[in-house]
C-alpha cells in the first residue's frame, strides 16, 4: 500500500497532523498506522472528565480523524521497521507501506516495575487502560495508586470521588512537593486527606506480587501495602526504538529541527516522542496534550509544504477535586518562586524564576485567564522582581 503521508502512531498527534496536512493539501492520501485497537481519541478525559459522567463509553472520546481529515486509520497495526532507503515501513505481520513523507508520532511508554500482568494491575495510559480500571472498580474496594505525578494525583482524586478507598504512594515528602512551593503543596496534599485518601509519603514501590485476589506491594521504606488493585503512574519513556533502528538521531526523544523534521527531509516527528528546539524554553521534550495537538498540527502542515518554524510554547492543565491549575514553562523546585495569591491555595499565581530572576514558568491556580500574559512574560526573558510580578496576571 502507498500513502503520500504516512503517520506511525494512532494518538492525538496523528489526528492533529492529519488535520494539519489537510489545511495545505486536500487531496494527498493519508495513512495512519496505530498499534492501539482504538482509533485516535482524546486523552485528558480518561483521567478527568469521564469519571464524573455516569454514562461513559467509546462515543465520548474518538476524534473522528478518518471522516473529518479523510485519513485511512489502520488500528491494531504495529510497525516493526522503517526502511528509509526505499521510503517504506513494514509491520510486525509483514505488511509493507510506502510513503512520500513519514511522521513518527509513536508517543511514550509507561514505566513499569517487576509485577506480572493482571487485570488488577493498570499502568494508566490508554483508553483500554481506562476501561480496565473502570472494570476493576466494579469489584475492588481498595485501590493503591502509585506515583504522585499527573496520573497519580488525577486518578487518586477521581477514584476517591467515586467512593473507592484509595492509598496514594508518592516519593514526595508532601503530594505535589516536586513542583509546587511548600505553601501550595501543603494545600494540595491536604486535599487528598480531606477526601479520605491515605497517603504514603516519601517512599517508592520497588516490587509487587499478586496472591489470593490481592496485590501486594513492597515499598523502599521497608513497609508493604496490600490492595484489591493497583494503578501506576510512574512516568513515561519516549518510544524511540523505530527511529533508532532507522539510523535517526535520538537524544531523549527523536531529534527534530524547528520545522519538526529529522535529519531526513522526508521524516518528521512530533508529540511526546520529539525532542525539539522550543523558541522560548530551549531544546526539550514535552509530554502534555497541548503539545501533542499543536505540534502534531504544525508537523502536518510542514509535511504538506508549509515550511513554518514551530514556535508555540505549550501549556497544560489539571483538575484535582474542586481545584484546577494551568501552567506554562518549567515548574521545578530547583527554581526560586514568587507567589502572588488572592487567597493562599484558593486562587493565585506562582512564578518560577532562574538565577537571573528571569521567569521560566508560570502556574495559575484556579485562575483561568492570563495565559497570553504568561506567554509574553516567558518570551521576554527579562529579569523580574516581586513587585513587577505582583498583580500581573
Ligand atoms: N494534566 C496533564 O497534563 C496530564 C495528565 C495525565 C497525564 N499526563 C502525562 O502523562 C504522562 C505520565 O504521567 P505520570 O503521572 O505517570 O508521570 P509523572 O512524571 O508526572 O509522575 C511520575 C511520578 O511517579 C514517581 N515515581 C516513579 N517511580 C516510582 C515508584 N516506583 N514508586 C512511587 N513513585 C514513583 C515519580 O517520582 C513521579 O513523581 C506524563 O507525561 C504526563 O505529562 C499529563
From TrEMBL:
Co-factor(s): FAD
Reactions listed under catalytic activity: A + NADH + H(+) = AH2 + NAD(+)
SUPFAM superfamilies listed in its UniProt record: FAD/NAD(P)-binding domain, FAD/NAD-linked reductases, dimerisation (C-terminal) domain
InterPro entries xref list: AIF_C, FAD-oxidoreductase/Apoptosis, FAD/NAD-bd_sf, FAD/NAD-binding_dom, FAD/NAD-linked_Rdtase_dimer_sf
Main enzyme class: oxidoreductase
Keyword Flavoprotein (UniProt): yes
Keywords in alphabetical order: Apoptosis, FAD, Flavoprotein, NAD, Oxidoreductase, Transit peptide
Positions of the Mitochondrial apoptosis-inducing factor C-terminal domain: 299-341
Record EC number: 1.-.-.-
Transmembrane segments: none
Pfam families assigned to the protein according to its UniProt record, in alphabetical order: AIF_C, Pyr_redox_2
Source organism, top-level taxon: Bacteria
Gene3D superfamilies recorded: 3.30.390.30, FAD/NAD(P)-binding domain
Location of the FAD/NAD(P)-binding domain: 3-296
GO terms of molecular function: oxidoreductase activity
PANTHER family: APOPTOSIS-INDUCING FACTOR 1, APOPTOSIS-INDUCING FACTOR 1, MITOCHONDRIAL
The protein's name in its UniProt record: FAD/NAD(P)-binding oxidoreductase
Amino acid at each position: 500500500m502507498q500513502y503520500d503521508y504516512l503517520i506511525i502512531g494512532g494518538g492525538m498527534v496523528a489526528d492533529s497532523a492529519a488535520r494539519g496536512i489537510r489545511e495545505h493539501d486536500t487531496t494527498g492520501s493519508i495513512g495512519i498506522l496505530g498499534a492501539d485497537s482504538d482509533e485516535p481519541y482524546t486523552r485528558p478525559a480518561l483521567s478527568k472528565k469521564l469519571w464524573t459522567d455516569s454514562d461513559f463509553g467509546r462515543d465520548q472520546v474518538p476524534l473522528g480523524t478518518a471522516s473529518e481529515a479523510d485519513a485511512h486509520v489502520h488500528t491494531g497495526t504495529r510497525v516493526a521497521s522503517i526502511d528509509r532507503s526505499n521510503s517504506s515501513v513494514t509491520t510486525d505481520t509483514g505488511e509493507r507501506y510506502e510513503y512520500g513523507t513519514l511522521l513518527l508520532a509513536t508517543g511514550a511508554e509507561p514505566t513499569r516495575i517487576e509485577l506480572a500482568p493482571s487485570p488488577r494491575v493498570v499502568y494508566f495510559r490508554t483508553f483500554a487502560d481506562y476501561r480496565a480500571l473502570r472494570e476493576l472498580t466494579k469489584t475492588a474496594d481498595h485501590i493503591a495508586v502509585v506515583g504522585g505525578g499527573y496520573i497519580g494525583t488525577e486518578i487518586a482524586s477521581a477514584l476517591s470521588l467515586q467512593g473507592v478507598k484509595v492509598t496514594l504512594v508518592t516519593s514526595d515528602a508532601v503530594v505535589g512537593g516536586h513542583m509546587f512551593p511548600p505553601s501550595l503543596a501543603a494545600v494540595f496534599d491536604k486535599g487528598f486527606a480531606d477526601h479520605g485518601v491515605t497517603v504514603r509519603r516519601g517512599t517508592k514501590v520497588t516490587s509487587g506480587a499478586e496472591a489470593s485476589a490481592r496485590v501486594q506491594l513492597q515499598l523502599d521504606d521497608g513497609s508493604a501495602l496490600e490492595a484489591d488493585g493497583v494503578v501506576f503512574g510512574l512516568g513515561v519513556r519516549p518510544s524511540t526504538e523505530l527511529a533508532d533502528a532507522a539510523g535517526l538521531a535520538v537524544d531523549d526523544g527523536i531529534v527534530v529541527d524547528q520545522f519538526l523534521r529529522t535529519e531526513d527531509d522526508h521524516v518528521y516527528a512530533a508529540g511526546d516522542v520529539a525532542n525539539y528546539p522550543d523558541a522560548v524554553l530551549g531544546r526539550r521534550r514535552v509530554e502534555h496534550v497541548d503539545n501533542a495537538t499543536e505540534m502534531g498540527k504544525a508537523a502536518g502542515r510542514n509535511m504538506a509544504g508549509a515550511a513554518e518554524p514551530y514556535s508555540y510554547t505549550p501549556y497544560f492543565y489539571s483538575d484535582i477535586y474542586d481545584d484546577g491549575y494551568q501552567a506554562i514553562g518549567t515548574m521545578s523546585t530547583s527554581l526560586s518562586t514568587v507567589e502572588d495569591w488572592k487567597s493562599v491555595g484558593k486562587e493565585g499565581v506562582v512564578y518560577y524564576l532562574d538565577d537571573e530572576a528571569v521567569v521560566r514558568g508560570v502556574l495559575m491556580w484556579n485562575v483561568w485567564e492570563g495565559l497570553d500574559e504568561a506567554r509574553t512574560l516567558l518570551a521576554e526573558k527579562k529579569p523580574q522582581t516581586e513587585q513587577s510580578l505582583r498583580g500581573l496576571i
